Amino acid sequence: DVDTVRIDARILTQMLYTASGETGAERDSGFTDVPDNAWYAGAVAWASAKDVVSGLGNYIFDPSGSISRQDLVCMLYRYYTGSGMTGLAETADISAYPDASSVASYAEAAMEWAVGIGIISGIIRMLCGVRVPHARGVAAHSDGDVAIHALCDAILGALALGDIGAHFPPSDPQ
Protein backbone atom coordinates (compact mmCIF):
# COMPACT_ATOMS: atom_id res chain seq x y z
CA ASP A 1 0.00 0.00 0.00
CA VAL A 2 1.67 3.19 -1.21
CA ASP A 3 0.01 5.27 1.52
CA THR A 4 1.82 3.42 4.30
CA VAL A 5 5.34 3.80 2.89
CA ARG A 6 6.72 7.28 3.45
CA ILE A 7 9.65 9.04 1.84
CA ASP A 8 11.79 10.86 4.33
CA ALA A 9 14.14 13.81 4.03
CA ARG A 10 17.35 11.79 3.88
CA ILE A 11 16.07 9.54 1.07
CA LEU A 12 14.85 12.36 -1.18
CA THR A 13 18.01 14.36 -0.47
CA GLN A 14 20.16 11.35 -1.41
CA MET A 15 18.10 10.84 -4.59
CA LEU A 16 18.65 14.44 -5.68
CA TYR A 17 22.35 14.30 -4.82
CA THR A 18 22.75 11.11 -6.86
CA ALA A 19 20.77 12.61 -9.76
CA SER A 20 23.05 15.67 -9.72
CA GLY A 21 26.03 13.51 -10.64
CA GLU A 22 28.18 15.35 -8.12
CA THR A 23 30.43 13.38 -5.81
CA GLY A 24 32.72 13.97 -2.89
CA ALA A 25 30.50 16.36 -0.94
CA GLU A 26 31.67 17.49 2.48
CA ARG A 27 30.07 15.50 5.29
CA ASP A 28 29.45 18.40 7.68
CA SER A 29 25.98 19.70 6.83
CA GLY A 30 25.74 22.15 9.71
CA PHE A 31 22.64 20.36 11.05
CA THR A 32 22.97 19.08 14.61
CA ASP A 33 20.84 15.99 13.91
CA VAL A 34 22.87 14.80 10.90
CA PRO A 35 25.94 12.87 12.09
CA ASP A 36 28.99 13.31 9.86
CA ASN A 37 29.25 9.50 9.56
CA ALA A 38 25.62 8.96 8.46
CA TRP A 39 25.18 7.42 4.99
CA TYR A 40 23.22 10.50 3.90
CA ALA A 41 25.51 13.17 5.46
CA GLY A 42 27.25 14.06 2.20
CA ALA A 43 23.93 14.41 0.38
CA VAL A 44 22.51 16.66 3.10
CA ALA A 45 25.67 18.80 3.12
CA TRP A 46 25.49 19.11 -0.68
CA ALA A 47 21.75 19.93 -0.64
CA SER A 48 22.23 22.53 2.09
CA ALA A 49 25.09 24.18 0.21
CA LYS A 50 22.97 24.27 -2.98
CA ASP A 51 19.92 25.64 -1.08
CA VAL A 52 17.88 22.57 -1.99
CA VAL A 53 17.16 22.10 1.73
CA SER A 54 17.12 24.58 4.57
CA GLY A 55 15.99 22.42 7.47
CA LEU A 56 13.39 23.18 10.10
CA GLY A 57 15.27 25.96 11.86
CA ASN A 58 17.63 25.88 14.84
CA TYR A 59 20.05 23.71 12.82
CA ILE A 60 17.53 20.83 12.69
CA PHE A 61 17.09 18.77 9.51
CA ASP A 62 14.87 15.91 10.85
CA PRO A 63 16.41 13.31 8.54
CA SER A 64 13.84 10.59 9.23
CA GLY A 65 10.86 12.96 9.24
CA SER A 66 8.23 12.48 6.56
CA ILE A 67 8.19 15.02 3.76
CA SER A 68 4.95 16.78 2.92
CA ARG A 69 3.84 17.16 -0.68
CA GLN A 70 4.70 20.85 -0.68
CA ASP A 71 8.16 20.19 0.78
CA LEU A 72 8.86 17.50 -1.82
CA VAL A 73 7.86 19.97 -4.53
CA CYS A 74 10.02 22.70 -2.95
CA MET A 75 13.05 20.41 -2.98
CA LEU A 76 12.45 19.50 -6.64
CA TYR A 77 11.91 23.16 -7.55
CA ARG A 78 15.05 24.33 -5.74
CA TYR A 79 17.05 21.52 -7.31
CA TYR A 80 15.80 22.44 -10.77
CA THR A 81 16.17 26.21 -10.46
CA GLY A 82 19.51 25.97 -8.68
CA SER A 83 20.96 23.71 -11.35
CA GLY A 84 20.78 26.40 -14.01
CA MET A 85 18.59 24.26 -16.25
CA THR A 86 15.89 25.89 -18.34
CA GLY A 87 12.95 24.72 -20.39
CA LEU A 88 10.50 23.82 -17.62
CA ALA A 89 9.32 27.30 -16.73
CA GLU A 90 5.55 26.91 -16.98
CA THR A 91 3.58 27.94 -13.90
CA ALA A 92 -0.10 27.74 -13.01
CA ASP A 93 -2.35 29.79 -10.78
CA ILE A 94 -3.19 27.60 -7.79
CA SER A 95 -5.44 30.10 -6.02
CA ALA A 96 -8.65 28.39 -7.20
CA TYR A 97 -7.68 24.97 -5.84
CA PRO A 98 -9.55 23.84 -2.73
CA ASP A 99 -6.34 23.40 -0.73
CA ALA A 100 -4.56 26.56 -1.96
CA SER A 101 -4.93 28.32 1.39
CA SER A 102 -3.03 25.52 3.11
CA VAL A 103 0.08 25.97 0.94
CA ALA A 104 2.77 27.75 2.95
CA SER A 105 4.03 31.03 1.51
CA TYR A 106 7.54 29.59 1.05
CA ALA A 107 6.07 26.84 -1.15
CA GLU A 108 3.76 28.89 -3.39
CA ALA A 109 6.18 29.43 -6.29
CA ALA A 110 7.26 25.78 -6.18
CA MET A 111 3.67 24.54 -6.15
CA GLU A 112 2.73 26.83 -9.06
CA TRP A 113 5.72 25.49 -10.98
CA ALA A 114 4.90 21.85 -10.19
CA VAL A 115 1.28 22.26 -11.29
CA GLY A 116 2.39 24.21 -14.36
CA ILE A 117 4.74 21.51 -15.63
CA GLY A 118 2.39 18.69 -14.63
CA ILE A 119 4.26 17.06 -11.75
CA ILE A 120 1.16 17.49 -9.57
CA SER A 121 -2.41 18.48 -10.20
CA GLY A 122 -4.05 20.68 -7.61
CA ILE A 123 -7.56 20.22 -8.96
CA ILE A 124 -7.76 16.55 -8.13
CA ARG A 125 -4.87 16.67 -5.68
CA MET A 126 -2.70 14.01 -7.27
CA LEU A 127 1.01 13.42 -6.90
CA CYS A 128 2.40 11.15 -9.59
CA GLY A 129 -0.87 9.28 -9.88
CA VAL A 130 -1.59 8.96 -6.15
CA ARG A 131 -4.56 10.88 -4.74
CA VAL A 132 -3.38 13.23 -1.97
CA PRO A 133 -6.12 14.73 0.23
CA HIS A 134 -4.28 17.90 1.27
CA ALA A 135 -1.38 20.20 0.37
CA ARG A 136 0.53 18.90 3.39
CA GLY A 137 -0.16 15.25 2.68
CA VAL A 138 2.82 12.96 3.20
CA ALA A 139 4.71 11.73 0.13
CA ALA A 140 5.41 8.02 -0.27
CA HIS A 141 8.59 6.39 -1.64
CA SER A 142 6.94 5.71 -4.97
CA ASP A 143 5.73 9.33 -5.21
CA GLY A 144 9.27 10.57 -4.80
CA ASP A 145 10.62 7.97 -7.22
CA VAL A 146 8.04 8.81 -9.87
CA ALA A 147 8.41 12.56 -9.37
CA ILE A 148 12.21 12.42 -9.57
CA HIS A 149 12.04 10.11 -12.60
CA ALA A 150 9.54 12.39 -14.38
CA LEU A 151 11.57 15.51 -13.60
CA CYS A 152 14.85 13.90 -14.70
CA ASP A 153 13.25 12.66 -17.94
CA ALA A 154 11.78 16.11 -18.61
CA ILE A 155 15.11 17.85 -17.97
CA LEU A 156 17.11 15.35 -19.99
CA GLY A 157 14.54 15.53 -22.81
CA ALA A 158 14.66 19.34 -22.83
CA LEU A 159 18.43 19.09 -23.18
CA ALA A 160 18.14 16.39 -25.90
CA LEU A 161 20.11 13.96 -23.74
CA GLY A 162 17.78 10.95 -23.92
CA ASP A 163 15.98 9.66 -20.86
CA ILE A 164 17.08 8.61 -17.39
CA GLY A 165 17.34 4.98 -18.49
CA ALA A 166 20.17 5.90 -20.84
CA HIS A 167 22.15 7.37 -17.94
CA PHE A 168 21.16 4.84 -15.26
CA PRO A 169 20.44 1.57 -17.07
CA PRO A 170 18.95 -1.37 -15.12
CA SER A 171 22.19 -3.26 -15.76
CA ASP A 172 24.20 -0.68 -13.75
CA PRO A 173 25.18 -2.34 -10.45
CA GLN A 174 25.01 1.03 -8.60
Notes on the structure:
39% of the residues lie in helices and 3% in strands. Helix 1 (9-20) packs across helix 2 (41-49) and helix 1 packs parallel to helix 5 (141-158). The longest helix has 18 residues, at 141-158. The chain is mainly alpha-helical and 174 residues long. The protein has 6 helices and 3 strands; from the N terminus they run ααααβββαα. The chain has a 3-stranded antiparallel β-sheet with strand order 1-2-3. The two termini are 26 Å apart.
Could you name the ranges where pLDDT drops below 50 across 5 or more consecutive residues?
Answer: 1-5
Give the neighbour order of strands across the main sheet: 1-2-3
What is the number of helices? Answer: 6
Shape assignment: globular
Fraction of residues in helices? Answer: 25-40%
- Strand runs, count: 3
User: Based on helices, strands and strand pairing, what is the structural class?
Assistant: mainly alpha
The mean pLDDT is 78
Order of helices and strands: HHHHEEEHH
Our measurement of the CA-to-CA distance between the termini, rounded to an integer number of angstroms, reads 26 Å
Beta-strand percentage range: under 5%
Return Rg in Å: 16 Å
Q: Biggest β-sheet: count, sense, barrel?
A: 3 strands, antiparallel
Which keywords apply here?
disordered N terminus; 3 strands; globular; 6 helices; 3-stranded antiparallel β-sheet; mainly alpha
